[in-house]
Structure formats: structure tokens, C-alpha cells
Amino acid sequence: MEIDKIKEKLKGKLKNKRYIHTLGVAKEARRLALIYGADADKAYLAGLLHDCAKGYSIDEQISMSKEYGVELDDNLLNSPPVIHGFLGFEIAKREYGISDIEILNAIRYHTVGRAGMTVLEKIVYIADLTEENRDFDGVEELRHSVDKDLDRTLILCLKQQFVVQGKRENTIHPNMVYMWNDLLINSEKE
């Protein structure tokens, strides 16, 4: 499916604010790909589709996940706002014709990350938090860091996410902990 048709379909499925955010993530992902040597077209497409499942309610996401064979373990069910990344993998594949596993995994892991993330996955994860329309305490620090060091920015993103989730007394998906440990272990080796 060509980019204009993807945008048109997304615009019809997402609320306007979410669609604008999506365009911002795609733009930022492309920019970061050019800095960090990733495929800019793949980054743009992954950024564009990262929230393709967000147009559905949580109940619809759970139902669709079951229908599409997305495993919903207790970690996902206890953090329903992150289900859309895992479901988005399947929606991007089935409804938008995406077959590139790098793009699909960047969509899948943009909410909780994982240990051993690829550069493209890191870019989409960070772009989701730093795109120009985001406005939260700490976003400027992330934006200041992002052009200098991708992994350091991921560590800052996770620190910020841990504080937010801690204040809300929410569970933290294990993938985020695995990503944190992986980043710290591997940054010590460099």
C-alpha cells in the first residue's frame, strides 16, 4: 500500500490528535534514521503505523488480539494501554500489507521495548516520545539528548517512564526492565 493511501486510511481510523501525533512520529523517525544510519523509508513507515491499533477501544483491542492470535499474557492485560503495539504488528501486516519484519517489530516494541532492540526499534520508540507535538515534563531533556546518543536517550526515556508508572502505581512491563538492564550492561562494555 502506498504512503498516501496509508495516511488516508489512518486519518479515517484515528482521532485527529492521534493522527497528528502519528505524522510527527513518522517525521521524527525519518530524521533520526538519517542521523543513526537506519533506513529512513522504513523508519518513516514504522512511525506512521506505530499507533495503527490505537483507533480501537481497549475492549476491541483485546478482542482483535484474540482473533489475530496475539498472545495476551498477564503483563499485557495488567497494562492495557500497551496492547496496541503488539496488536499493531498484526494490523500493519493484515490491513496495510506490511511484510518487512523490521518495520513490524518496530511497531510491536514501540511501547515496552525489549532487550537487544535494533536501531530501527530504538528510533521508533524514541520518536514516539520526542516528536514535536509531545509536551510532558522531561521531554526537552530527551530532545536535547536524542541527536547525540541513541542508547543514552533510551535510558533517559526509561527513567522517565519508570517514574511516571511508579507515581501511578502501575505495573511495569518486564520488557522495559529487560531493555533497561540490556542497555546498562552493554553501555558498560563500550
Overall 3D geometry?
Answer: globular
Helix percent reads over 70%
Please give the radius of gyration in angstroms: 16 Å
**The CATH superfamily title:** Hypothetical protein af1432
Q: Which blocks of ≥5 consecutive residues have pLDDT under 50? A: none
How is the biggest beta sheet arranged? none
Strand content: under 5%
Distance between the termini: 41 Å
CATH fold-level assignment: Hypothetical protein af1432
Per DSSP, the total helix count is 11
N-to-C SSE series? HHHHHHHHHHH
Helix vs. strand class: mainly alpha
Mean pLDDT: 94
CATH architecture: Orthogonal Bundle
> Total domains, how many?
1
Q: Which CATH class is shown?
A: Mainly Alpha
Number of distinct beta strands: 0
